[in-house]
Protein backbone atom coordinates (compact mmCIF):
# COMPACT_ATOMS: atom_id res chain seq x y z
CA UNK A 1 0.00 0.00 0.00
CA UNK A 2 1.32 3.45 -0.86
CA UNK A 3 2.45 5.60 2.04
CA UNK A 4 1.42 9.14 2.82
CA UNK A 5 5.05 10.08 3.50
CA UNK A 6 7.48 10.61 0.64
CA UNK A 7 10.34 8.38 1.74
CA UNK A 8 12.53 9.25 -1.25
CA UNK A 9 13.24 12.81 -0.16
CA UNK A 10 15.95 13.66 2.36
CA UNK A 11 13.44 15.39 4.61
CA UNK A 12 10.25 13.34 4.85
CA UNK A 13 7.20 15.36 3.92
CA UNK A 14 3.55 14.54 3.40
CA UNK A 15 2.90 13.03 -0.01
CA UNK A 16 -0.68 14.28 0.12
CA UNK A 17 -0.72 17.26 2.53
CA UNK A 18 -4.26 18.21 1.55
CA UNK A 19 -5.49 14.76 2.63
CA UNK A 20 -3.62 14.53 5.94
CA UNK A 21 -6.52 15.73 8.09
CA UNK A 22 -9.23 13.74 6.39
CA UNK A 23 -10.88 10.95 8.35
CA UNK A 24 -9.54 7.49 7.63
CA UNK A 25 -11.29 5.20 5.16
CA UNK A 26 -10.28 1.61 5.95
CA UNK A 27 -8.59 -0.13 3.03
CA UNK A 28 -10.59 -3.25 2.19
CA UNK A 29 -9.01 -6.60 1.45
CA UNK A 30 -8.87 -7.17 -2.28
CA UNK A 31 -10.74 -10.12 -3.78
CA UNK A 32 -8.81 -12.90 -5.51
CA UNK A 33 -9.43 -11.53 -9.00
CA UNK A 34 -7.54 -8.32 -8.13
CA UNK A 35 -4.33 -9.95 -6.94
CA UNK A 36 -1.17 -9.66 -9.05
CA UNK A 37 2.32 -11.10 -8.83
CA UNK A 38 5.21 -9.08 -7.39
CA UNK A 39 7.50 -7.60 -10.06
CA UNK A 40 10.61 -9.71 -10.63
CA UNK A 41 12.89 -10.81 -13.47
CA UNK A 42 15.65 -9.61 -15.78
CA UNK A 43 13.44 -7.67 -18.19
CA UNK A 44 11.71 -5.86 -15.32
CA UNK A 45 15.11 -4.86 -13.92
CA UNK A 46 16.31 -3.66 -17.33
CA UNK A 47 13.24 -1.46 -17.77
CA UNK A 48 13.70 -0.03 -14.29
CA UNK A 49 17.37 0.71 -15.02
CA UNK A 50 16.58 2.60 -18.25
CA UNK A 51 13.94 4.67 -16.43
CA UNK A 52 16.34 5.51 -13.59
CA UNK A 53 19.40 6.10 -15.79
CA UNK A 54 17.42 8.58 -17.88
CA UNK A 55 16.08 10.28 -14.75
CA UNK A 56 12.47 9.78 -15.82
CA UNK A 57 9.19 9.55 -13.93
CA UNK A 58 6.60 6.89 -14.70
CA UNK A 59 2.94 6.84 -13.77
CA UNK A 60 3.45 3.12 -13.20
CA UNK A 61 5.38 3.95 -10.03
CA UNK A 62 3.82 7.25 -8.97
CA UNK A 63 0.22 6.04 -9.20
CA UNK A 64 0.98 2.62 -7.75
CA UNK A 65 -0.31 0.75 -10.83
CA UNK A 66 -1.02 -2.92 -10.08
CA UNK A 67 0.20 -3.94 -13.56
CA UNK A 68 3.76 -2.63 -13.22
CA UNK A 69 5.26 -6.11 -12.94
CA UNK A 70 3.63 -7.39 -16.11
CA UNK A 71 4.21 -4.24 -18.15
CA UNK A 72 7.82 -3.62 -17.15
CA UNK A 73 8.66 -7.28 -17.73
CA UNK A 74 7.44 -6.73 -21.30
CA UNK A 75 9.51 -3.49 -21.46
CA UNK A 76 6.45 -1.24 -21.52
CA UNK A 77 6.32 1.87 -19.34
CA UNK A 78 4.13 4.97 -19.28
CA UNK A 79 6.27 8.08 -18.95
CA UNK A 80 4.94 10.92 -16.81
CA UNK A 81 6.27 14.31 -17.91
CA UNK A 82 6.33 17.71 -16.21
CA UNK A 83 7.52 16.32 -12.87
CA UNK A 84 6.08 14.08 -10.18
CA UNK A 85 4.02 16.70 -8.32
CA UNK A 86 0.46 17.62 -9.30
CA UNK A 87 -1.29 20.91 -8.61
CA UNK A 88 -4.60 19.16 -7.97
CA UNK A 89 -5.84 16.88 -5.20
CA UNK A 90 -8.17 14.29 -6.70
CA UNK A 91 -9.54 11.97 -4.04
CA UNK A 92 -8.60 8.80 -5.95
CA UNK A 93 -5.05 9.62 -7.05
CA UNK A 94 -1.75 8.60 -5.43
CA UNK A 95 0.45 11.08 -7.32
CA UNK A 96 2.06 13.66 -5.03
CA UNK A 97 0.40 17.05 -4.73
CA UNK A 98 1.93 20.45 -4.08
CA UNK A 99 3.91 23.14 -5.90
CA UNK A 100 5.77 21.51 -8.83
CA UNK A 101 9.35 22.21 -9.85
CA UNK A 102 10.13 24.27 -12.96
CA UNK A 103 9.75 22.54 -16.31
CA UNK A 104 12.74 20.34 -17.19
CA UNK A 105 13.39 21.22 -20.84
CA UNK A 106 15.89 18.36 -21.28
CA UNK A 107 13.23 15.78 -20.41
CA UNK A 108 11.99 15.41 -24.00
CA UNK A 109 15.40 14.26 -25.23
CA UNK A 110 15.77 11.80 -22.34
CA UNK A 111 12.36 10.28 -23.05
CA UNK A 112 13.18 9.92 -26.74
CA UNK A 113 16.44 8.20 -25.76
CA UNK A 114 14.56 5.80 -23.48
CA UNK A 115 12.07 5.00 -26.25
CA UNK A 116 14.97 4.02 -28.52
CA UNK A 117 16.77 1.99 -25.82
CA UNK A 118 13.59 0.09 -24.95
CA UNK A 119 12.72 -0.47 -28.60
CA UNK A 120 9.18 0.77 -28.09
CA UNK A 121 6.82 0.39 -31.03
CA UNK A 122 4.12 2.29 -29.12
CA UNK A 123 4.71 4.73 -26.27
CA UNK A 124 2.30 6.35 -23.80
CA UNK A 125 3.05 9.82 -22.42
CA UNK A 126 1.05 11.29 -19.56
CA UNK A 127 1.57 14.13 -17.10
CA UNK A 128 0.56 15.66 -13.82
CA UNK A 129 -1.78 18.65 -13.88
CA UNK A 130 0.23 21.86 -14.15
CA UNK A 131 -2.28 24.60 -13.37
CA UNK A 132 0.71 26.79 -12.44
CA UNK A 133 1.83 27.04 -16.09
CA UNK A 134 0.24 29.47 -18.55
CA UNK A 135 -0.35 26.70 -21.07
CA UNK A 136 -0.86 23.87 -18.58
CA UNK A 137 2.24 22.15 -19.99
CA UNK A 138 0.93 21.91 -23.56
CA UNK A 139 4.17 23.03 -25.21
CA UNK A 140 6.11 20.41 -23.26
CA UNK A 141 3.78 17.72 -24.62
CA UNK A 142 4.51 19.06 -28.12
CA UNK A 143 8.27 19.01 -27.46
CA UNK A 144 8.14 15.41 -26.22
CA UNK A 145 6.07 14.26 -29.20
CA UNK A 146 8.49 15.95 -31.62
CA UNK A 147 11.56 14.50 -29.87
CA UNK A 148 10.16 10.95 -30.07
CA UNK A 149 9.22 11.40 -33.73
CA UNK A 150 12.74 12.59 -34.51
CA UNK A 151 14.51 9.78 -32.62
CA UNK A 152 12.15 6.91 -33.46
CA UNK A 153 9.89 7.77 -36.42
CA UNK A 154 8.18 4.37 -36.50
CA UNK A 155 7.02 4.56 -32.88
CA UNK A 156 3.33 5.40 -32.51
CA UNK A 157 2.54 7.90 -29.77
CA UNK A 158 -0.35 7.91 -27.33
CA UNK A 159 -0.83 10.82 -24.97
CA UNK A 160 -2.91 10.92 -21.79
CA UNK A 161 -3.37 14.60 -21.06
CA UNK A 162 -4.74 16.77 -18.27
CA UNK A 163 -7.84 18.78 -19.09
CA UNK A 164 -6.08 22.13 -19.82
CA UNK A 165 -8.88 23.84 -17.91
CA UNK A 166 -8.83 27.63 -18.46
CA UNK A 167 -5.73 27.35 -20.71
CA UNK A 168 -6.78 28.97 -24.00
CA UNK A 169 -5.14 27.43 -27.05
CA UNK A 170 -3.35 24.70 -25.07
CA UNK A 171 -5.40 21.77 -26.28
CA UNK A 172 -5.18 22.95 -29.88
CA UNK A 173 -1.37 23.06 -29.71
CA UNK A 174 -1.24 19.44 -28.53
CA UNK A 175 -3.80 18.27 -31.09
CA UNK A 176 -1.77 19.92 -33.85
CA UNK A 177 1.30 17.90 -32.80
CA UNK A 178 -0.69 14.93 -34.16
CA UNK A 179 -0.28 12.15 -31.62
CA UNK A 180 -1.70 8.85 -32.84
CA UNK A 181 -4.01 8.55 -29.82
CA UNK A 182 -5.33 11.43 -27.72
CA UNK A 183 -6.51 10.12 -24.35
CA UNK A 184 -8.12 12.07 -21.55
CA UNK A 185 -9.91 10.22 -18.77
CA UNK A 186 -13.34 11.26 -17.54
CA UNK A 187 -12.58 9.00 -14.54
CA UNK A 188 -16.08 8.84 -13.02
CA UNK A 189 -19.72 9.79 -13.48
CA UNK A 190 -20.80 13.47 -13.26
CA UNK A 191 -22.54 13.05 -9.87
CA UNK A 192 -19.26 12.07 -8.19
CA UNK A 193 -17.04 14.81 -9.62
CA UNK A 194 -17.33 17.13 -6.61
CA UNK A 195 -16.06 14.48 -4.20
CA UNK A 196 -13.73 12.46 -6.48
CA UNK A 197 -12.38 14.94 -9.04
CA UNK A 198 -13.15 18.37 -7.55
CA UNK A 199 -10.64 20.36 -9.63
CA UNK A 200 -12.12 19.18 -12.94
CA UNK A 201 -15.36 19.72 -14.82
CA UNK A 202 -17.12 16.78 -16.47
CA UNK A 203 -18.43 18.61 -19.52
CA UNK A 204 -15.16 20.45 -20.07
CA UNK A 205 -13.33 17.09 -20.18
CA UNK A 206 -15.92 15.68 -22.55
CA UNK A 207 -15.69 18.75 -24.77
CA UNK A 208 -11.88 18.46 -24.88
CA UNK A 209 -12.15 15.06 -26.54
CA UNK A 210 -14.86 16.29 -28.88
CA UNK A 211 -12.56 19.14 -29.99
CA UNK A 212 -9.85 16.63 -30.90
CA UNK A 213 -12.20 14.98 -33.39
CA UNK A 214 -13.37 18.33 -34.77
CA UNK A 215 -9.83 19.57 -35.34
CA UNK A 216 -8.26 16.31 -36.57
CA UNK A 217 -10.72 13.48 -37.31
CA UNK A 218 -7.82 11.10 -38.07
CA UNK A 219 -6.68 11.03 -34.44
CA UNK A 220 -8.02 8.23 -32.28
CA UNK A 221 -9.63 9.43 -29.05
CA UNK A 222 -9.75 7.44 -25.86
CA UNK A 223 -11.14 7.86 -22.36
CA UNK A 224 -11.43 5.82 -19.20
CA UNK A 225 -13.64 5.25 -16.18
CA UNK A 226 -13.05 3.82 -12.73
CA UNK A 227 -15.87 1.82 -11.20
CA UNK A 228 -16.44 0.85 -7.58
CA UNK A 229 -16.77 4.43 -6.34
CA UNK A 230 -20.53 4.32 -5.79
CA UNK A 231 -21.73 4.91 -9.34
CA UNK A 232 -24.79 3.12 -10.70
CA UNK A 233 -24.89 1.01 -13.84
CA UNK A 234 -27.30 3.50 -15.40
CA UNK A 235 -24.85 6.35 -14.75
CA UNK A 236 -22.04 4.42 -16.41
CA UNK A 237 -24.20 3.78 -19.46
CA UNK A 238 -25.08 7.48 -19.65
CA UNK A 239 -21.36 8.34 -19.67
CA UNK A 240 -20.91 5.84 -22.50
CA UNK A 241 -23.61 7.68 -24.46
CA UNK A 242 -21.95 11.03 -23.75
CA UNK A 243 -18.62 9.65 -24.95
CA UNK A 244 -20.11 8.32 -28.16
CA UNK A 245 -21.78 11.68 -28.79
CA UNK A 246 -18.28 13.21 -28.53
CA UNK A 247 -16.94 10.68 -31.03
CA UNK A 248 -14.68 8.81 -28.62
CA UNK A 249 -13.24 5.67 -30.18
CA UNK A 250 -11.83 3.69 -27.27
CA UNK A 251 -13.25 3.17 -23.77
CA UNK A 252 -11.38 1.66 -20.83
CA UNK A 253 -13.09 0.63 -17.57
CA UNK A 254 -11.23 -0.62 -14.52
CA UNK A 255 -11.69 -1.16 -10.80
CA UNK A 256 -10.83 1.73 -8.50
CA UNK A 257 -8.22 0.70 -5.93
CA UNK A 258 -7.78 2.83 -2.83
CA UNK A 259 -4.12 3.90 -2.40
CA UNK A 260 -4.24 4.84 1.32
CA UNK A 261 -6.69 5.36 4.18
CA UNK A 262 -6.82 9.06 3.31
CA UNK A 263 -8.12 8.46 -0.20
CA UNK A 264 -11.69 7.88 -1.34
CA UNK A 265 -13.08 4.58 -0.11
CA UNK A 266 -13.89 1.68 -2.39
CA UNK A 267 -17.67 1.40 -2.38
CA UNK A 268 -17.50 -2.14 -3.77
CA UNK A 269 -15.36 -4.46 -5.85
CA UNK A 270 -17.09 -4.97 -9.17
CA UNK A 271 -17.32 -8.62 -10.22
CA UNK A 272 -15.52 -9.71 -13.42
CA UNK A 273 -18.88 -10.68 -14.95
CA UNK A 274 -20.07 -7.09 -14.59
CA UNK A 275 -17.03 -5.86 -16.49
CA UNK A 276 -17.87 -8.28 -19.29
CA UNK A 277 -21.40 -6.89 -19.35
CA UNK A 278 -20.07 -3.32 -19.57
CA UNK A 279 -17.85 -4.36 -22.48
CA UNK A 280 -20.80 -5.90 -24.32
CA UNK A 281 -22.93 -2.79 -23.78
CA UNK A 282 -20.13 -0.43 -24.84
CA UNK A 283 -19.45 -2.35 -28.04
CA UNK A 284 -23.17 -2.26 -28.85
CA UNK A 285 -23.07 1.52 -28.44
CA UNK A 286 -20.44 1.77 -31.18
CA UNK A 287 -17.01 2.09 -29.58
CA UNK A 288 -14.26 0.79 -31.88
CA UNK A 289 -12.39 -0.66 -28.89
CA UNK A 290 -13.37 -1.51 -25.32
CA UNK A 291 -11.16 -2.79 -22.52
CA UNK A 292 -13.16 -3.56 -19.37
CA UNK A 293 -11.59 -5.73 -16.67
CA UNK A 294 -10.84 -5.22 -12.98
CA UNK A 295 -7.16 -4.50 -13.71
CA UNK A 296 -7.67 -2.40 -16.85
CA UNK A 297 -5.80 0.90 -16.73
CA UNK A 298 -5.49 3.59 -19.40
CA UNK A 299 -2.19 2.39 -20.79
CA UNK A 300 -2.51 -1.32 -20.01
CA UNK A 301 -1.69 -3.31 -23.18
CA UNK A 302 -1.76 0.03 -25.03
CA UNK A 303 0.45 -1.11 -27.89
CA UNK A 304 -1.56 -4.23 -28.69
CA UNK A 305 -4.79 -2.31 -28.25
CA UNK A 306 -3.60 0.37 -30.69
CA UNK A 307 -3.12 -2.25 -33.39
CA UNK A 308 -6.61 -3.62 -32.72
CA UNK A 309 -8.00 -0.09 -32.77
CA UNK A 310 -6.46 0.63 -36.15
CA UNK A 311 -7.74 -2.66 -37.52
CA UNK A 312 -11.24 -1.95 -36.18
CA UNK A 313 -11.31 1.42 -37.93
CA UNK A 314 -10.16 -0.07 -41.23
CA UNK A 315 -12.87 -2.72 -40.98
CA UNK A 316 -15.55 -0.12 -40.16
CA UNK A 317 -14.51 2.07 -43.09
CA UNK A 318 -14.57 -0.86 -45.51
CA UNK A 319 -18.16 -1.78 -44.65
Automatic annotation (TrEMBL):
Protein name as annotated: Lipoyl synthase
Organism: Hyphobacterium lacteum
Main location: cytoplasm
Pfam families xrefs: LIAS_N, Radical_SAM
Recorded catalytic activity of this chain's protein: [[Fe-S] cluster scaffold protein carrying a second [4Fe-4S](2+) cluster] + N(6)-octanoyl-L-lysyl-[protein] + 2 oxidized [2Fe-2S]-[ferredoxin] + 2 S-adenosyl-L-methionine + 4 H(+) = [[Fe-S] cluster scaffold protein] + N(6)-[(R)-dihydrolipoyl]-L-lysyl-[protein] + 4 Fe(3+) + 2 hydrogen sulfide + 2 5'-deoxyadenosine + 2 L-methionine + 2 reduced [2Fe-2S]-[ferredoxin]
Location of the protein in the cell: Cytoplasm
Required cofactor(s): [4Fe-4S] cluster
Biased segments, Basic and acidic residues type: 12-30
Co-factor: note: Binds 2 [4Fe-4S] clusters per subunit. One cluster is coordinated with 3 cysteines and an exchangeable S-adenosyl-L-methionine.
Lineage of producing organism: Bacteria, Pseudomonadati, Pseudomonadota, Alphaproteobacteria, Maricaulales
Keywords: 4Fe-4S, Cytoplasm, Iron, Iron-sulfur, Metal-binding, S-adenosyl-L-methionine, Transferase
Sequence ranges assigned to domain Radical SAM core in this UniProt record: 72-288
Protein residues bound to [4Fe-4S] cluster 1: 60, 65, 71, 299
EC number: 2.8.1.8
Amino acid sequence: MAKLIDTLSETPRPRHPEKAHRPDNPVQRKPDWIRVRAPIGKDYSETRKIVKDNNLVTVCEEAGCPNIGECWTQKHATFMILGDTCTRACAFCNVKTGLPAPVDHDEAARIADAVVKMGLEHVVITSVDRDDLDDGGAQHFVDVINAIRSASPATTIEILTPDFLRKDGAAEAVIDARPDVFNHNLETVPRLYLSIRPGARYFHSLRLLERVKERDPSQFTKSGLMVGLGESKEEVMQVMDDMRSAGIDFLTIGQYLQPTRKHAAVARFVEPEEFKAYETIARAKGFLMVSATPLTRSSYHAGDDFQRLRTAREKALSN
